[in-house]
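Reply to dn_fold:

You asked what the input looked like. This is it:
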Amino acid sequence: MERALSVATARDVSVFQVAGLYLVAACDSLGAIGRKPSDVVAASEHICGSYTLRVCLSELAAVGASPMLVMSLVSNEWEPTGQAILESIRTELDVEGYTDVAITGSTEENMPTTMTGLGIAVLGTAPSLRWRRTGAGDSLYLVGHPWVGNEVLEHGSQLLTPAVVRLLAADDAVGDFLPCGSRGIAHEIDVLERETGMKVLLDECWPYLNKSAGPATCGILTVHRPPLSSPLELTRLGSIGKAQ
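and this is what came back:
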């Protein structure tokens, strides 16, 4: 059997190359969001499952990988929480057009729980990766807005989705796409600089750069030749300077 080679990256994914194919893994967790007594933010199991899965699917889509396996790890009982989350995962996969993805997982059947806890990991494949194509002089854009907590529920129609990521990442005008999550936009800008070896030159001191973007509610992308068409609002943040 051919040995899998790890591909180093600063992104929130693990990448391996084996037999001419790239394996890409992404994961995300959720806690204290749900309908249990100790949850901090009230939300349905559908929201919990689908939005957590979206993070993983967006990370894969950003580098051109397609999911093959979803792993759902629920720290609560099967009925009703685990079952409802599984249904939300299946629905989200159908909505995104991933109808042949395998699903496995586990629930907590030994202890009673009063707070919702969930982890999702997704394994995907790609014949080649769509990344590290940013060049000096490219523009840096924000797509969507950083939302967290109850803001996510209030702005459901304005959230980044895997479908939007796929649409933009596949555009030849786009260099790199990075979904932004709980560590904020500034963190992903740092990741972009480490991935490309180039310096990001911001147009101004944007006030929301360090705000959490929750379950990947927005993303940053580099663009060779704007303007770019997008179903979500695009905001120019700056440009890409020469190699550091």
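The helical segments are 45-62, 78-95, 150-154, 162-169, 184-196.
Hope that clears it up.
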